[in-house]
Design a protein that fits this description.
- The complex is a heterodimer.
- By secondary structure, chain A is mainly β.
- Chain A is built from no helices and twelve strands.
- Chain A has strands at 3-5, 10-14, 19-21, 24-26, 32-38, 44-50, 56-58, 64-68, 73-78, 87-94, 102-103, 107-112.
- By secondary structure, chain B is mainly beta.
- In chain B, a hairpin with a 2-residue loop joins strand 5 and strand 6.
- The radius of gyration of chain B is 13 Å and the shape is globular.
- Chain B starts with a strand and ends with a strand.
- The chains are: A mainly beta, B mainly beta.
- The interface between A and B is medium-sized, with 27 and 28 residues.
Chain lengths: 113, 115
């Protein structure tokens, strides 16, 4: 069965600092990988996704993620965090030829000024 | 255009009562999903519709949970004889097709509290 682990429940970073949110998955093959963001009062929004090819993917709002097969990881990064990035970030996997997503528990990001 | 909408946004009910949660997907989206998020947990898949049929109901936690979709559009998730452990945020998502690489667009959710 697929599973997703986001080891950090909460992370606090200073505005302007770099950010890396960790995501590890368990799956028999390379799954499709996603990062979603959930801001207060808003629904989940897709940040980026990886299916194949270049292992560094660019997303919206200046985010990027890198797929590392050897580590079964898909970590999310941003070079300089803005206060508006404070939100919950959810990593998800989907099986090739599947339909549903399996989500991690999420990481809540707090940005301090 | 309009996104996925859900109603009600909040629902408080007493243990043992039945509740209905509604989802209006994006027009033209053939696939519809229900997830729930319990406190401190990640989103948990409940059921997937392609058109009006549900080829994957594997996430429904018990037979108290059921869902239907009519006209290839609106979906209703029904929880019978609610229990306190049913308290969660119920999220609906839709996508153009029922393939995982299609972006799923999420609604704002219904927050259910069972007293």
């Amino acid at each position: 069965a697929q599973s997703v682990t986001q080891p950090d429940i909460h992370i606090t970073v200073s505005e302007g600092a770099s950010l890396e949110l960790r995501c590890n998955y368990s799956y028999g093959a390379t799954p499709y990988l996603f990062w979603y963001v959930q801001s207060p009062g808003q629904g989940l929004q897709l940040l980026l996704k990886y299916f194949s090819g270049d292992t560094l993917v660019q997303g919206i709002k200046g985010f990027e993620a890198e797929f590392k097969r050897s580590q079964s990881s898909f970590n999310l990064r941003k070079p300089s965090v803005h206060w508006s990035d404070a939100a919950e970030y959810c990593c998800a996997v989907g099986a090739v030829n599947g339909n549903k997503l399996v989500f991690g528990a999420g990481t809540i990001l707090r940005v301090k000024s | 255009g309009a996104g996925v909408s859900q109603s009600p946004s909040n629902k408080v009910t007493e243990k043992g009562k039945d509740v209905e949660l509604r989802c209006d997907p994006i027009s033209g989206h053939t696939a519809l999903y229900w997830y729930r998020q319990s406190l401190g947990q990640g989103l948990e898949f409940l059921i997937y519709f392609q058109g009006n049929s549900a080829p994957d109901k594997s996430g429904l936690p018990s037979d108290r949970f059921s869902a239907e979709r009519t006209g290839g559009s609106v979906s209703t998730l029904t929880i019978q004889r609610t229990q306190q452990e049913d308290s969660a945020v119920y999220l609906c998502a839709s996508s153009l097709w029922g393939a995982v690489q299609e972006t799923q667009y999420f609604g704002p959710g219904t927050r259910l509290l069972v007293l």
